[in-house]
Specification:
Layout lengths: L1 H54 L2 H7 E8 L5 E3 H6 L8 E12 L2 E11 L7 E12 L2 E11 L7
Parallel strand pairs: 1-6
Antiparallel strand pairs: 1-2, 3-4, 4-5, 5-6
Length: about 160
């Protein structure tokens, strides 16, 4: 009888272990799905921000820039949300392309790092501007609160 009871306990322990593991996986799955959705939303916000800057779409910029937004330019200048909204679009014929984007989320905040390859015109040599953008989750969605930009030196200069 002792063998049967011991076997039954072992089976029960295995059942509890499998149940605990399953619950752990199920509990983690929504977090992973939420994180993937957050990353997608933040990357979309980055692209929307770039498109709105290029086209002068003030409505989209107002939606994306948090009221406390601060931008630090590659040359060290600082401007707030109102100054950023008042800035005009880049010159006609210029282009910007975002690359090397990495998103890290921390509950209701996120940090995006990447490179904005900027050309003032089609014939100009591109300038790589590395950036760090900080986002917060608000009732209106993800909004950027801070952006810091630095010009990446050419490879020979690094």
């Amino acid at each position: 009888m002792g063998g049967r009871l011991h076997s039954h306990r072992r089976g029960l322990a295995t059942t509890f272990a499998v149940a605990a593991l399953t619950l752990g996986i199920l509990a983690a799955a929504p977090a992973a799905a939420d994180e993937a959705a957050d990353h997608a939303a933040i990357l979309k916000a980055e692209q929307d921000w770039l498109a709105a800057t290029e086209s002068g779409d003030r409505g989209t910029l107002e939606r994306l820039l948090h009221p406390t937004f601060v931008n630090i330019s590659p040359l060290g200048g600082m401007r707030n949300r109102a100054e950023s909204l008042a800035a005009g679009p880049p010159p006609p014929g210029s282009s910007q392309t975002l690359t090397e984007l990495k998103v890290r989320t921390f509950r209701d905040s996120a940090v995006v790092t990447g490179v904005n390859r900027y050309r003032p015109n089609a014939k100009a040599k591109p300038t790589d501007v590395v950036f760090t953008d900080v986002f917060v989750r608000t009732p209106q969605g993800w909004q950027v609160v801070s952006s810091h930009n630095s010009i990446r030196p050419a490879p020979a200069e690094r």
